[in-house]
Amino acid sequence: MKYLLILADGMSDYGIAELGGKTPLEYAQTPNMDFLARTSIIGKAKTIPEGFPPGSDVANLAVIGYNPEKYYTGRSPLEAVSMGIELGDNDLAIRCNLVTLSDTDDYRKKTMLDYSSGEISSAESRELIKTLQDELGRPEISFYPGISYRHLLVWRNARGRNITLTPPHDITERVVGQYLPAGTDSSILLDLMLQSYNILKDHPINNRRRVAGQHPATSAWFWGEGSRPALDSFEKLYGLKGSVVAAVDLVKGLGISAGLESVEVPGATGAIETNFAGKARAALDELKRGQDFVYMHIESPDESGHQGSLKQKLWSIERIDQEVVGMIIDELEQFQDLRVMIVPDHPTPLSIRTHSNEPVPFMIFDKNHPLSDSIGIYNEQAADEGILFPEGYKLMEFFIKG
Q1: Quick one: pLDDT at residue 181?
Q2: What is the pLDDT at residue 144?
Q3: Quick one: which of 3, 59, 168, 243 could link to 293 by a disulfide (CB 3.0–4.6 Å)?
């Protein structure tokens, strides 16, 4: 049996008045998902345990079959794994976004204009992170470049420090004062953020971006702290060898930590526009070359939700249906046994522009065991009538063992 999991990040949403009360998943034109849904198992899974923040780290950990209550050590350590950064037992990894803040003189009174600096390119941001490392780096503090606006700060021998950090995508268009680093050990991080603004605001790259009508990356913003992860291997837990197809370091690092092979796809960006078909091609090729399981992650719907763009979210869902699910249907006959699951990790509702913790809809299609009594529709409302996994990490075992 071959297993393909399509993780449509943040695809789930609330009903929208502009769509007649339908969610984007209900409203979008998805003929290929509709085809699979007619004979699939439909249901919901609660991927965010009580007391956990509704982040992609917690949610993807649950979807891939690991109990967050046992395995979760933070988001950024998984990104560090993907980036090849060695963490000591007492080191703290912290996500470093490059963000756009307003020009107000008082940092505390600035507004979070853009958590992604206009989805700044990796080439531009790499130079900005190098500047921060040159200016602010020291033995215990190191900046590492990642992809687009997503980077990493490593604070050596800082595990257990008392800090409270806020994701920047949670505070779009809000004044940042009450969301700055808090806790008895937060002053170092706050000082780094203040200095980063003075260093970056007039950087030549940002001046060029302003001239081009693009958001400048005017500050570092820290969040998602954690310590080195220790996951049991996916093969040990589920008896399958597999691969992860993803563009974002979080999911690549999660896959690598679980013993999955990471597959690079040209043109895969971790942004709204990405190489949808390339990811599908890579996933199918991994199964054909002998892998048992592939975890394919697509960030596009989540980024659309964070940006509050209904048009882009509908577009991303329809691209997934056409270029990913459509390719899989076209090649079904090339597999003797194939089981496919489509699921978001968490909702990213357009109305709040951040993550929420409601259960997400899933669909499981088995080529050789089609259901004759399926609910037959894949969306949030229809999935309420199906099976519910209150512990979302148990969905993986159900997917594999049935």
Answers
A1: 98
A2: 98
A3: 3
Q: What is the pLDDT of residue 15?
A: 98
- Residue 276's pLDDT is 98
Q: Where are the domains of the chain?
A: 2-73+231-401, 92-226
CA 316 – CA 301 distance, rounded (Å)? 6
pLDDT, residue 226, reads 96
The confidence score (pLDDT) of residue 191 equals 98
Would you list the DSSP string of 45-101? E--S-TTS---HHHHHHHHTT--HHHH---SHHHHHHHTT----TT-EEEEEEEEEE
DSSP state of 369: S
* Ranges of the chain whose pLDDT falls below 70: none
In angstroms, the Cα distances linking 106 to 52, 136, 179 are: 33, 21, 14
Closest among 13, 358, 348 to 170, alpha carbons compared:
348
Task: Find where tokens 């190098």 sit.
Answer: 130
Q: What is the CATH number of domain 2-73+231-401?
A: 3.40.720.10
Distances in Å between the Cα of 185 and the Cα atoms of 11, 159, 201 are 36, 11, 26
